[in-house]
Structures are given as structure tokens and as C-alpha cells.
Design brief:
4 helices, 2 domains, Aminopeptidase, alpha+beta
Length: 152
Amino acid sequence: MDIRYTEPGDINDLKDVLDHTKLFQSDLLEDMLSGFLNGDNEELWLTCENNGRAIGFCYTVPEQMAEGTWNMLALAVLPEAQRQGIGRGLVAQMEAELQEQAARVMIVDTSGTHSFDGARAFYVKAGYSEEARIRDFWGEGDDKVIFWKALD
């Protein structure tokens, strides 16, 4: 298992990750990655590769008008590779990358629905604490749950 910066050759495999996890539509990926791949922005994309195949990724952006605060917008791992420490490895590597850039805080927004119980438990286990909850944010009955972690 190798965790590294995302490369153009990862796109097809990462689209497959998205098609299997349904995190967001895979046809959005190339446009989302373009700024990072061209060096046009501060976003960070990490990919986990196993046996020459990209099987997961983590995507973070700096929060505008905040000093050293980053938001993890996406974390996805192929279903058959989940529960093997890949997600935790991606998060740990991203945290290390951000610490090198003097980041202070990482936040993660997720859903408060039962289908996201596992995701919320994952972030708690990774050392994040539930910092806020905005009722009905994503839709009626679907709260936005914000997790927080100091990166010092």
C-alpha cells in the first residue's frame, strides 16, 4: 500500500472508487482535480495505491478567511478494501502533510443520518470530536455534523 499525491493516471481508478461508494458523481472528478494537478490551487489530493491500482483517496481544501484551518471534503475507499486501515492511513498522511504546512485545525462535514453512523464513528476513532450540528442542513431530517481536530 502506497499513499502519495494524486496523479493524472489515477483518475479512472478513482472514478471506479466513486462509482462503487456513491460519495459523489464520478463525472465531477476530473474538473475537481484539475486545479490540483495543474498546481493552480492549494487543495491537496492523496491517493492510496495497491498493486498498481488506486483504491482510495482523500481530498482537503484550506478554509477561506481562516488561519491554518483545512476542511476534508472527501474520503473514499473501494468497498472491498474498506476496514483494512486504508481510510485511517489516508487521513493520517493528510494530517502529516498539513502539519508540514503549519495547519492548525482539520474539520470534516458529514451527515447525521443513520447511514453515516459508520463514518461518524470512524472520525471519532481517528481522534476527531463532534464540534457542531446544523439541523436539516443537507435536507429535511439530514443534519450537517461537523467534526474537529487540532493538528499540532
